[in-house]
Amino acid sequence: MDNNDEVENNEDGHLDQMYTLDEALSVVGFGRFQVMVLCYAGLGSIAEAMEVMILSFVGPAVKSEWGLSSTQESLITTVVFAGMLVGAYSWGIISDYYGRRKGLVSVAVVTTISAFLSTFSPNYVTLIILRMFVGVGLGGGPVYSSWFLEFVPAQKRGTWMVIFSTFWSVGTILEASLAWIIMPKLGWRWLLALSSIPSFAALIFYRFATESPRYLYMIGKISDVNNILRKMATVNQTDFPSGLLVSDEVPERDEEFAPVERIGLLSSGSNKVSFFEAGISSVIVLFSSRLLKTTLLLWVVYFGNAFAYYGIILLTSEMSSGQSECGSTSLNSKNSDDASLYRDVFITSFAELPGLVLSAIIVDYIGRKRSMALLYFFSFIFLLPLLKHQNEFLTTGLLFGARMCVIGTFTIAGIYCPEIYPTAVRTTGYGVASAVGRIGGMICPLVAVQLVTGCHSVPAIVFFEVVIILSGISVMLFPFETKGRKLTDTVDVCSSS
């Protein structure tokens, strides 16, 4: 049969149309299969959230037990973020070049072993080293997100990615609840041990994780893609498209705009390149002429999101704690008892839920760019009145309103980033952007805590407002909207906003 034919006859005499992977995913739809994928990816997100959240409780407990200095206590958190910087980049390379499943199992192994062993740390140095490796494992969060994304049809991808983001909030609430119950009676070692259970579960259930059809599609394993699509159709009780699965990458008419990034990428599944070569190749693509603007803008947005998110949390804590020596009336006199601390963290964790609901409502309605810009605008408005002293009720409401909006921008950026990058560098690009965000999270306490406790709350608010404005501008400069777009294997340079 002629390869140029658009159709071919099947055994029943029907015409078999050619179709792309995105069209196939639309036909099989979102059903029970994707729900199972969502649950596994969500389990990884819960594990990540709990291991990050635990830092709020372990540091003070270890400081008291081992007589650590404030600097030593802070280092426990710093090494975790440093590990996440390394992990975010490394797991991205592994997932892009050796498959999503290998990335998932590597993340689960490193996180589970190091998290559980840290329970038995005999001294401070051992704890620091093991928690750093926990951070390396936690850097694999973008792998779970990108893997789930590649199973979801384009139509409602934004809404389902927001739903995926709720697992992070569930993890923070679970950790706060666990700390409230465990810490006063059993101590930090039991909290570390029980908090590693989701990581253990992710490792145990890994064998049920299916390789991403998008990744297999990219490396040319079409028969494996068809097998996965048939399984999805069977589980979802939907139709399997008849016809020939073809690439949806159409050559550009103008040679000037040919997608040169394709060169060297589709061989990523060969497993014949070294980790170092894979990393260099990915960096070259991320900084190529067609992705440089996108990469730099995403870095600004991720840095700004993390800076603003952790900053608002710290502002809430500092302006509510009554520890400031500025002489102004604190929002409330905080009980020094540990149970009160755990209760407060538990309650404030719920502040993110309205932001997630709002994101789910608008992300597929007005698009990613407009949604982020709108939420940045409202977070700016919420913080603006704090340039002057406000009463307790209004200050609390403004800070939680700002946090609600910032978690929304964080969530939507986590959808836009993997959507805009091509499959061959999707988890690497997402991972590096996430790593830049971790830098923002590390720098933020130096600004928020030092300025507020140093009686300079106004400059702190101004600083956060500037970061939010720059992030909003960067969003509007993104090259195109990804709402409803097909995921690509290469860079589509002809798309407009």
Automatic annotation (TrEMBL):
Q: Which domain of life is it from?
A: Eukaryota
Keywords for this protein: Membrane, Transmembrane, Transmembrane helix, Transport
Entry's transmembrane regions: 37-62, 74-92, 104-122, 128-149, 161-182, 188-209, 296-315, 345-366, 373-391, 397-417, 429-452, 458-478
User: According to Swiss-Prot or TrEMBL, what is its membrane topology?
Assistant: Multi-pass membrane protein
Q: Where in the cell is it found?
A: Membrane
Q: Which InterPro entries match?
A: MFS_dom, MFS_sugar_transport-like, MFS_trans_sf
One Pfam family it belongs to: Sugar_tr
Q: Does the keyword Lipid biosynthesis apply?
A: no
Provide a GO CC annotation, any one: membrane
Q: Taking every annotated instance into account, which residue ranges of this chain make up the domain Major facilitator superfamily (MFS) profile?
A: 37-483
The record's similarity note reads: Belongs to the major facilitator superfamily. Phosphate:H(+) symporter (TC 2.A.1.9) family.
- This protein is called Major facilitator superfamily (MFS) profile domain-containing protein
From which organism does this entry originate? Cinchona calisaya
